[in-house]
Specification:
Length: about 150
């Protein structure tokens, strides 16, 4: 059997926070899990502050399946990005949440959510489903992020 093909997806949103304020927002585990995790799912973080080594666990809805997803923060740069590596889930993935100032508007930040990985063997039979669901997840996550930020102001 051939190894599963890699895939990648990304989605960007603009939020009404400066890069510095975005970094502080992303560092708070409760704020981060409030937009990143599956809606309605039980989420948890091993720390109150997002930092390298923080373990995140939440259910991930993939069509009719809801596997538990565990990821570890491998990088956190307050004014730049968070990188997660999956340790258990339907894909071996590297997820990046990166932020930068919106050109010409320092009071807004552009967040880019990206996932790149390979499906686990049992999920490799559904590459189209996995890609579609991941894209929808990133769009929904971007919407939850915007709603959460706007709700705070």
């Amino acid at each position: 059997m051939r190894p599963p093909k890699p895939y990648s997806c990304s989605h960007s949103v603009d939020i009404p926070l400066s890069v510095e304020a975005t970094g502080h927002f992303m560092e708070d585990a409760q704020e981060f899990l409030g937009f990143w995790a599956s809606p309605g799912g039980r989420t948890s973080s091993s720390t109150e502050v997002i930092a390298p080594g923080t373990v995140l666990e939440y259910p991930l809805a993939l069509g009719p399946f809801t596997p538990s997803w565990i990821a570890v923060v491998s990088q956190f740069k307050r004014n730049e990005k968070i990188v997660l590596r999956s340790t258990r889930g339907p894909v071996d993935a590297r997820t990046t949440i990166a932020w930068e100032p919106v050109p010409g508007n320092p009071t807004q930040t552009r967040i880019t959510l990206s996932v790149a990985g390979r499906p686990a063997r049992r999920w490799s039979r559904f590459p189209g489903l996995l890609n579609t669901v991941t894209e929808r997840y990133l769009v929904a996550t971007g919407s939850r992020l915007v709603q959460r930020i706007e709700g705070r102001q």
